Each structure stands twice: as structure tokens, then as C-alpha cells.
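Researcher: Please translate sequence to C-alpha cells.
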Amino acid sequence: MDNKDLVPCVDALEALFEQEANNIVSGNLSELGEIAQAKVLHLTALSTAIEGGALRDQPDAVIKRIQKLQSVAAEHDQHLQAVRHGLSRTLERLNRIQSDANVGSYNQYGGRVQFTDARGRFESKA
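Model: Translation complete:
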């Protein structure tokens, strides 16, 4: 990537991060996959350009925009990790509810009689 392609790449990344932020805030997690693919392409190109020395000839405004992108990327990463953690905890709770549920009845002595391979709800009235 040469210097003239650097600014459009930064513009694209800023737009993608804005879309990502809107989707995180609104809870549209399904949209994040498509954004992530485009983001990886642009971040790879930007990283390659930076490693190639493309920032040497750039004005301070462009360098500050790239630094801002780095901080926004770190912030979004924290939000996405929190979402991932929340979803995994929700799955754990759901699995725990399922494993703790006892479907069955009581015998004439008050002891539990569990049904094997029970599914669905237990009806209290026959």
C-alpha cells in the first residue's frame, strides 16, 4: 500500500468501527461477523503499510487518526470479550437448569420416582 491508499484505508476502518460500535450497543451481534471480515482485510493492509514505513511521510493528522483507531480497536475488543463472557455464562446457566431439573413423581412413601428419558413438562393432573 502506498501513501495515497493509506487515507482511504483509514477512512474505511473508521466507518467499520462506527458500524461495529452501533451493532455492539444495539445488540446486533449477527452483523458483527460481516464487519469483522472487512475489518481484518483493512487492518492487515494498514499493518503492512505501517511495517513498510508508510507513516514516515504522513502528516500528524493521519498519524493521530491511526492512533485513535488503535484505541477504538482495543475498546471494542473489551466490549466484545464482555459480550462473549456474558453469553458463555448464560449458556452455563441454561445447562445447569437443564441438568438440575428432576422430572418425576412421588411414590406412596414420599420418595421420588424419576422418569427415565423424560422430555417436556410434567403434568400434575393425569
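Researcher: Any highlights?
Model: The beta strands are 104-106, 112-114.
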